[in-house]
Amino acid sequence: MSLEKIVDVQGSSACSVKSEVAAQPFKLRAPDGFTIGGFVWRDQITDGSARPVVIINPATSVLCRYYFRFATFLFRHGFDVITYDYRGIGESRPRRLRGFEASWADWGRLDFEAVLQHADTSFPGQPIDVVAHSAGGMVLGLAPSNPLIRRVFTVGAQCAFWRDYAPDKRLRMLAKWHLFMPLLTALFGYFPGKRIGWIEDTPKGIVRDWVSSPERLRDSWRKGSRTHSDDSFVLEQQFAAITAPILAFSVTDDEFATVPAIDRLLANFVNCSRMHLRITPDSIDEPRIGHFGFFHSRFEEKLWSIPLQWLKFGQFPEVYAEIWPKSSKAAKVATP
């Protein structure tokens, strides 16, 4: 699925997904008082203590509604599920984005932190797992409560560093995301992504983080977010606090999530066991998967068993060990 088409998918049918239990909207307060909105699937009949709860961390400026089909799938297979929007996006959007301040650090240290704490208190005794898409993998490492997490499954998670973009797409992506996007943001005071059919409208601070080098981004995170200027916060210590095993999934036609991009992010999780599973679309008889395709319902039969078995048992299906050639380092990468 192309990035340009994701808005149509989000807006057309995400709310019409039918499930045994309808998604219930919720609002909660982040540590700084900002209101975060999202949806929850919760089994009210069986004993909840045996059901893990999965938090879905969205990609940058992708509505949480985009993940409804996948959330419903997880719910049908024995998980309670929480989806939510970061501040500035979707259910967590203020009335005006012009002049609204938000950063990736805010999304992690405040928004994801609030959802983690909510899962811990509202689902007592239930294991907490996380599915993180794209920038949701970075957000994962920034929340002070991330030691609560039991297991992590990431999809195309990386740091959005331009040098890691696919070489044959790099110039086009630089022009699109590192030239045109910042220019429009400077003009409007936010990025009007929805108006031009790219992504959701996006706060200017997120655009600033997107176009920053990893070194500049680390410096800003070390100093804390706009709302947390505590100089004692150290990025490496926060990422190191999480010990949950990570299964990172990527596809070869994802121009953002190349092998160097995936490895760059995984290297920050120094106290986690990390495995990177990478496939080609033709290995599952598909012409394309891309950066957003994994969560489309057409891949339920072919791909969704991977996170299901990982989150349930800490394993991935044996059939995929045959699909991914063991002789290819790029196809299957494991780091201790």
Explain what this protein looks like in three dimensions.
- The chain has 336 residues and is an alpha/beta fold.
- The chain has a single domain, classed as Alpha/Beta hydrolase fold, catalytic domain (Rossmann fold).
- Helix content is 32%, strand content 17%.
- It contains 11 helices and 11 strands.
- The chain has helices at residues 6-13, 68-76, 104-122, 136-140, 170-188, 204-210, 214-222, 235-241, 259-266, 305-313, 318-323, and strands at residues 24-29, 35-41, 53-57, 80-84, 128-133, 149-155, 190-191, 202-203, 246-251, 274-279, 332-335.
- The strands form 2 sheets. Strands 1-2-4-3-5-6-9-10-11 form a 9-stranded mixed β-sheet, with helices on both faces.
- Helix 5 (170-188) packs antiparallel against helix 6.
- The longest helix has 19 residues, at 104-122.
- The protein is globular.
- It starts with 5 loop residues before the first helix and ends with a strand.
- Mean pLDDT is 86; it is low at 1-19, 225-233 and 324-336.
